[in-house]
């Protein structure tokens, strides 16, 4: 009985993981197709993006505004080519709205408490980027406080938390700059793992689930046959 429950639980979990990977792959494929469709469009202004009712994820943006060079957020544990560093975020003021800007990646120093020296421009004029809606990872615990200490190291981009720190209202998205700039590495990758890899994982989990079920099925059938032969033998005696 216990072996049956364990096997059924394992098979259900494996099938659930296969289904999850499949849907992840489909979502990635849909996003890649969406990016390809909007990439041919002209860049929009921040003010135009704010008026749209449709999905704005990955839309191209051309931004002009003033930057507060003091309010710098460093998102920790960002890896580029095997080297740890930070994603640099700053607060910009457009014509009608403040917005969070992702300037790109900078390398960290050998000592963790020795933060890199980051210099932001005072203004951006016609800077090109993409609209990115940050996702909240419940597995990440924020270690930063709301004290105005700059630069501020944070664990993930939480718009609500950043609003509380800077005492300003922000839209629920970030402009991730994509054009080149000295001092920052910009390698915008909206889809890190391709859909094909998710599909491969889905096939693997499905195969493991089927294999586990077959092993249990044949083991159970062999047990029933052995019990049946034993019973027949005892009746003949």
From TrEMBL:
Top-rank taxon: Bacteria
Subcellular location: Cell membrane; Membrane
Main location per the UniProt record: membrane
Membrane topology according to the record: Multi-pass membrane protein
TM stretches of this protein: 199-220
GO cellular component annotations of the record: plasma membrane
Pfam families, A to Z: SURF1
Keywords: Cell membrane, Membrane, Transmembrane, Transmembrane helix
Signal peptide start and end residues: none
Annotated InterPro entries: Surf1/Shy1 (IPR002994), Surf1/Surf4 (IPR045214)
UniProt family annotation: Belongs to the SURF1 family.
Protein name from the UniProt record: SURF1-like protein
Protein source organism: Paraglaciecola mesophila KMM 241
Upper lineage: Bacteria, Pseudomonadati, Pseudomonadota, Gammaproteobacteria, Alteromonadales
